[in-house]
Amino acid sequence: MDLGAHLPLADLGDGTPDLDALRAYVRIARELGFTTLSANDHLVWRRPWLDGPTALAAVAAEAPTMTLATSITLPVVRHPVIVAKAISSLASLTASPVIAGLGPGSTPSDYEAVGVPFDERWARFDEAVTVVRALVRGEAAVGGRFYGAAGPLAPVSERPPEVWFGSWGSDRRIAAMAAGTDGWLASAYNTTPEKYAAARARLDGHLVAAGRDPAAYPDAIATAWAFVTTKAGERERILRELLGPLLGREPELLGDLPVGSPAYCSEVFARWQEAGAQLLLVWPLRDAHAQLELLTHALP
Q1: 208-238: per-residue pLDDT in tens?
Q2: Which of 17, 70, 205, 275 is the most exposed place for a label (fewest CB within 10 A)?
């Protein structure tokens, strides 16, 4: 299992990072062997939040050997043509492989900010995925209920971005996305290693039914909030005072995240590995630069 690094876009107690701090973070991740650099997406959140796609583009030059990914970005909130144009431009301007991780998101405030009905997010998303995937490949997108015909866009990268879908693992979503996407982004804090493995098995069945090879369809576990500590009681304090309130979850439901002692984090990593995870995207909660090295040491 490889490790990837989320850009620390939110102020979780250390302040919102500036460009120099983000560039330094990426250099450290690259030198430590992290394979992927990703950015999540919100317009409005519980904490101050830098724009994800903008931040990813701003640091791309520091990550020439890493895959660049949105994990996820919101085509329904931003509009699929705008997302496709931004992702295609990023792929054209960098030597790195680019993954357009797409999802509807689960935060009503993002939708309220742009006047899009939150209860339409899934219907709009199903259509938006097909628009983005066509446009990043240099094809024209066919109009539908929510979006008009568009494209083709130019320029298009010689290595078009892959389009992955973000889902917590419901069978309905997996079945809907298997035929028309290039990979799956699961959510570390919305599943467990065991539930992920079961969802992956179901996905493989849907891929076979669609005439696709499961071995050629990658996945990753995104938003693995992380913090390695040797201080007694700090794991419980972080889960109770920071992460639980931040995510609206009870601390005991967050046990599958790498938050705790080096040994505990190593056990969490091992469980994800045993479940078949190919890539785990970690997000250090505090002291991001130092945490990257501690997390690599905890990987079995």
Answers
A1: 999 999 999 999 999 999 999 999 999 999 9
A2: 205
In the block, residue with structure tokens 């696709």: 212
> What integer is the mean pLDDT of 88-107?
96
| Distance between CA atoms of residues 73 and 166, nearest Å | 9
Which pLDDT value is given to residue 163?
98
User: DSSP letter at 243?
Assistant: I
Range 270-273 contact pairs with CB under 8 angstroms and sequence separation of 24 or more: 270/300, 271/193, 272/1, 272/188, 272/193, 272/196, 272/221, 273/1, 273/300
Angle between helices 19-32 and 288-298 (to 10 degrees): 20
**224: Cβ contacts below 8 Å, ≥ 6 apart:** 188, 189, 257, 258, 280, 281, 282, 283
Give residue 168's pLDDT band: very low, low, confident or very high (50, 70, 90): confident
Token pair 């939708």 in the structure block, residue: 111
Residue 271 pLDDT class (50, 70, 90 cuts):
very high
Classified as helix, coil or strand, 254 is helix
- What pTM value is reported for the model? 0.96
8 Å CB contact between 150 and 131: yes
Task: Identify residue 252 by its one-letter amino acid code.
Answer: E
Helix H or strand E encompassing 129 = helix 121-136
Rounded CA-CA distance 279/299 in Å is 12
Number of Cβ atoms within 10 Å of the Cβ of 155? 11
Helices (H) and strands (E) in the chain, counts: 12, 9
What's the pLDDT score for residue 143?
Answer: 84
